[in-house]
Amino acid sequence: MLAKDWNELIEEYSKERKRLQAGGGPERAEKEHKKGKMTARERLEYLLDEGSFLEYDLWAKQMGRDYGLDKADVPADGVIIGYGKINGRGCVVYCEDFTVIAGTFGERHGKKICKAVDMAREMGVPVIGINDSGGARVTEQMGALSEYGQLFFRHSRTSGVVPQIALIMGPVAGGQSYSPALMDFIFMVDKTSSMFIAGPPLVEAVVYEKIDEQSLGGPHVHGSISGVSDLTAKDDKDCLDATKRLLSYLPLNNREKPPYVEPTDSPDRTTDELTEIIPTDQKVMYDMHKVIDVLFDKGSFFEIKPDFAKNLIVGFARLNGHSVGVVANNPMKFGGALDYNSADKGARFIRFCDAFNIPLINLQDVPGFLIGSKSEHRGIIRHGAKMLYAYSEATVPKITTIIRKAYAGGYLAMCSKDLGADAVFALPTAEVCLMGPQGAVNILFRKEIKASDDPEATRAMREKEFRDKYVNPTYAAGLQHIDDIVLPGELRKRLIQALEATLNKRDRLPEKKHGLMPL
Questions:
Q1: Contacts of 472 (CB under 8 A, 6+ apart)
Q2: Residue 54: its pLDDT value, please?
Q3: How many CB atoms lie within 10 A of CB 224?
Q4: How many other C-beta atoms can be found within 10 angstroms of the C-beta atom of residue 138?
Q5: Helix, strand or coil for residue 70?
Q6: What pLDDT is recorded for position 1?
Q7: Three-state secondary structure of 156-210
Q8: What is the pLDDT of residue 71?
Q9: In whole angstroms, what is the distance from residue 403 CA to residue 455 CA?
Q10: Cα–Cα distance, 331 to 403 (Å, whole number)
Q11: Where would I find the beta strands (DSSP E) of 52-162?
């Protein structure tokens, strides 16, 4: 047999490469388009800088005859992995291809994803997983199950080393749903994505509950009820755009500082409009989002979990070009009180920012933790302790501003001086105390009020006295719990000064293997 010449070899391998890159072919790609979805390679082309993608293991495939797939064509084993760039910064991606046997997870498929996570950790760049899979290949049994474990192990070991972002852009079922859960952020796509440990047929067979995919584990469920998802995008492109924006706030790894962007917003811009947004009457509600929009660089706030635990707002923003994490109470929900869900939401975000050197700016208007039997039965003590632990453990710059209420454990849980805040400012509207005036007076003067000829007048008088003496920023500042009382128009400037003064702070935790966070 004559050896093939170079032209024959080049043609042969070029043809096979194109076939593998075509995945399940044009007919299956068209089916995805009709669902409103992009194909795997279309997603990568849109996400990554043009010409930057370096693919690995295109030729990898499972030995099908060992698993009953000897007649199946499984190009690239249903997942694409490689290195690329987003806005000039490196990342590793893996992208499941639903056109190839529904993107199902088999042994070789899993090994490719594990390789991608290993590459990201070793290269010191974020890993982005685009999930679109019908679940495990039951034909591969222990091979698939073992690779699930291998992947979970890698996500855990990579946690806090490089950012891990999961994009749910189709179904994610069974054990594979724990892969995104072990990553740092989960974005879902409206109407086309879902995630659950058991799909509707199994749910109906085992627990006799009839339910559809979206009601069981769609974006609305995980975005607003379970809190599993961090953001719901309207379509595939919106999801990929959100990923690009998220990465713009994050360092490539835990040894870097977050990226600085030359600001277009003046550090000397006054914020007098805060007087129109923040009522002086503590009983009148307002939207903390408006305060955030005024204080931080214009248009820079990127909210995380916007539909879950709305009494606490978390997200990324820029302050004079510096990337910061924002944690703020929202009086529009529960008066800004913290509950078990918001404590979980806050603690997770705080720990992410601390792991990746992102300073924390905290805006307080909190009457405390939500009380009552429901709150206690849901474990408010255990969940609330997570925020206390997260702030105490965090070594990044921590700057707190008390907007209005700062009562009791809520004051501490939103990063007081006692929990390591580097700077604490207060507006003149701030009320800082162990207990609100009404509750304190009812305890301290209950006998006097009861014996009075006019109990309401006596109560009002005692409340005013208590408020004037104790419940004001001057009293707390006099005891050095507050560094300065700042006028509304000067707050942005003071936050920038405090941030830039603390950017190079050095703070180390005691030597230990790890702490035991209340979980």
A1: 430, 431, 432
A2: 98
A3: 16
A4: 12
A5: coil
A6: 56
A7: HHHCCCCCEEEEECCEEEHHHHHHHHCCCEEEEECCCCEEECCCHHHHHHHHCCC
A8: 53
A9: 32
A10: 11
A11: 54-56, 79-86, 89-96, 127-131
pLDDT at 68: 54
Return phi, psi of residue 90, to 5°: -70, 155
pLDDT at position 64, please? 53
127 Cβ partners below 8 Å, 6+ apart?
91, 92, 93, 94, 116, 117, 119, 120, 121, 158, 162, 163, 164, 165
Taking only the tens place, the pLDDT of each residue in 227-259 is 999 999 999 999 999 999 999 999 999 999 999
3-state secondary structure 369-405: ECCCHHHHHCCHHHHHHHHHHHHHHCCCCEEEEEEEE
Buried b (16+ CB within 10 A) or exposed e, 435-462: bbbeebbeeebeeebeeeeeeeebbeeb
Distance CA 417, CA 411 (A): 10
What does the block give as tokens for 503? 């950017």
Do domains 6-247 and 274-435+472-502 share one topology? The answer is yes
Domain boundaries of the chain, sorted by first residue: 6-247, 274-435+472-502, 437-470
Place of tokens 């849901």: 378
CA angle 256, 111, 248 (to 5 degrees): 25
pLDDT tens, residue by residue, 425-470: 999 999 998 877 777 888 888 888 888 888 888 888 888 888 877 8
Secondary structure element (H or E) that encloses residue 14, with its range: helix 6-21
Domain 274-435+472-502 has CATH 3.90.70.10: no
Under a CB-based contact definition with an 8 Å cutoff, are residues 254 and 355 in contact?
Answer: yes
Task: Give the number of C-alpha atoms closer than 13 A to the C-alpha of residue 115, restricted to the C-beta side.
Answer: 17
pLDDT at 435: 77
Whether the CB-CB separation of 139 and 107 falls below 8 Å is answered with: no
Measured CA to CA, the distance from residue 314 to residue 293 in angstroms comes to 13
Please, which residues bridge with residue 185 across strands? 165
pLDDT of the residue at 272? 97
Residue segments in the chain with a per-residue pLDDT below the cut of 70: 1-2, 63-72
Name the burial class of residue 313, with classes exposed (0-12), middle (13-18) and buried (19+) by CB atoms within 10 angstroms of its CB.
Answer: buried
- Cα distance between residue 519 and residue 517, in whole Å: 6
Class of domain 6-247: alpha beta
CA distance 78 to 23: 8
Q: Residue type for 216, please?
A: L
Structure tokens at 196: 């659950």
Compute φ and ψ for 52, nearest 5 degrees.
Answer: -95, -10
105 DSSP 8-state letter:
B
- Kindly tell me the burial class for residue 293, based on how many C-beta atoms sit within 10 Å of its own C-beta (0-12, 13-18, 19 or more): middle
Looking at residue 419, the DSSP 8-state letter turns out to be G
